[in-house]
Design goal:
- The chain is mainly α.
- The protein has a single domain, classed as Up-down Bundle (AhpD-like).
- The protein contains ten helices and no strands.
- α2 runs antiparallel to α9 and α3 packs parallel to α6.
C-alpha cells in the first residue's frame, strides 16, 4: 500500500499539538512501559500497522516482556499484568471504543482506584493522543516499515530538545 501523503511534511503546524502532548506525557507520572502498552493496545484495536510496529519496538525498549506484548490482545486472560496495567488497558479499550462503551462507571472506578486524578488525566491524554495518531497514520497509509527510522529520528530530536518533523509521518 502506497503512502498517500506525509502530514508531518505537508502541514507540520497541524501536528504540533500532538508533539506537545507527547512531550508532556514523557514528563508525566505515566511510566514509559505503561504508556507504550496503552499505545500498543489502542493501535491494535484501531488496526494501525504503523503504530503497532512503532510502539511494539518502543515497548520492548521500555522493558516489556514478550509475554506482555504477545498476550496483549487477551490481557484479561493472562496473569502477568499488574492491577495498574489492567486498569490502564480497560480504560484504553473503553476510550478507544467510546461510541459503544461510553466509558462505564466500573471501568472508571477501576482506573481511579490505581491512578491519581492527575495520572488519570494524563492516561486519558495518552489514549486520546494515540487514537489521533492512529487516525493520521491509517488515513494517509503510513508505511510500517518506516517505524524504526521514525523512532531513531524521535530519539535524536529528544536529545536535541527539538520537535520531530519526521515523527509519525
Amino acid at each position: 500500500m502506497a503512502e498517500r501523503i506525509a502530514p508531518a511534511f505537508v502541514a507540520p503546524e497541524a501536528l504540533r499539538p500532538l508533539y506537545v502532548a507527547g512531550n508532556h506525557l514523557r514528563t508525566s507520572q505515566i511510566e514509559p512501559a505503561l504508556r507504550n502498552l496503552v499505545f500498543l493496545r489502542a493501535s491494535q484495536m484501531n488496526a494501525c500497522a504503523f503504530c503497532i510496529a512503532m510502539h511494539w519496538r518502543e515497548a520492548k525498549e521500555a522493558g516489556l516482556s514478550d509475554d506482555h506484548l504477545h498476550g496483549l490482545p487477551a490481557w484479561r486472560e493472562t496473569p502477568w499484568y499488574s492491577e495498574r496495567e489492567r486498569a490502564a488497558l480497560a480504560w484504553t479499550e473503553a476510550l478507544t471504543d467510546i461510541a459503544h462503551s461510553h466509558v462505564p462507571d466500573d471501568v472508571y472506578e477501576q482506573a481511579h482506584s490505581v491512578f491519581s486524578d492527575r495520572e488519570l488525566v494524563d492516561l486519558t491524554l495518552a489514549v486520546t493522543l494515540i487514537n489521533s495518531w492512529n487516525r493520521f497514520q491509517i488515513a494517509f497509509r503510513a508505511n510500517p516499515e518506516t517505524a524504526p527510522d521514525v523512532i531513531a529520528a524521535a530519539k535524536k530530536a529528544a536529545e536535541a530538545q527539538a520537535p520531530v518533523a519526521a515523527a509519525h509521518r
